[in-house]
Amino acid sequence: MRFEQLEYLTAVIQHGSLRRAGERLHVSQSALSEAISALERELGVPLLERHRSGARVSREGRDLLPVMTEILAGVARLKAAARDHARTIRVGTVNAGTSSLLVPAVREFGAGHPSTTVDVATLLQAEIQERLIEGRLDVGVINVFPGDDLPAALEGTVLLRGVPKVCCRTDDPLAAQPAVSVADLRARPFVAMRPGYLMHRLAQRLFGDAPPPETFSTDGAEMGKTLVATGTGPTILPDYSIVGDPLETAGVITARPLAEEVPPVMMLLVRRRFDRVPPAIADFEETIVRLARSV
């Protein structure tokens, strides 16, 4: 029996089919089916009900889910204990609060834990959640709208609450307006986040079928703010990503409210729900939560 066989079956149960599980795990349906068939032969019970229309988890497979979850949680605890020994904390971030929160947290944590390394990777939200579930990340920092659900295996703590705003240069005519409308943005070149970022969802909603005639796509808030600063065009970001950024404090960029109603946005600290939290990771979480409360 291999641990990935249990992970494959658990994914099929969670996502409802081999196809969706394969898409989530980036594994072919044939490889999933073959691995689960081998597990069926070893356990002596049918785990999937296979039909011409596709495969679904059997009653026996669902009955075994609590045991499999316990085993996978034990593996996660083992990995966490090993990471304790390695003394490296792996953090995934969508980049929106890097300057105002994550960088200060890493700096303060590092001063108190000189023998622990913090490895920060900028990723899409879906990648962060996937790597947390798989145990390839320890902590994630993501943005969500109210009503966005986390996977059942993850839990989140609210770090910051804000609202999406227009980010533009301070010498841009938009900066002189009390509020910026969608029509204003449609008339200008626009810096858009790529699909997979929260602000891409918002821009799609605001612009609908009539986007700005010239759009520049980028990955993450930091590069977006850099493009804004060089005069490429405005963008839309959470206000906590703009206020306190070095470009904002230097007077290069600023934030202006949108004239249209937009949903609030939250930054979450996310990790696995059933992990035993190693002391170093707990200290890092305490540091970033405390700094967030003081922002």
Automatic annotation (TrEMBL):
Keyword Transcription: yes
InterPro entries membership: LysR_HTH_N, LysR_subst-bd, WH-like_DNA-bd_sf, WH_DNA-bd_sf
Family note: Belongs to the LysR transcriptional regulatory family.
Statement: the UniProt record of this protein carries the keyword Transcription: yes
Record key words, sorted: DNA-binding, Transcription, Transcription regulation
Alphabetized GO MF terms: DNA binding; DNA-binding transcription factor activity
PROSITE patterns linked: HTH_LYSR (PS50931)
Pfam families reported for this sequence: HTH_1 (PF00126), LysR_substrate (PF03466)
GO CC terms: protein-DNA complex
Domain of life: Bacteria
Residues of the HTH lysR-type domain: 1-58
Identification of the protein by name: DNA-binding transcriptional LysR family regulator
Organism: Actinoplanes xinjiangensis
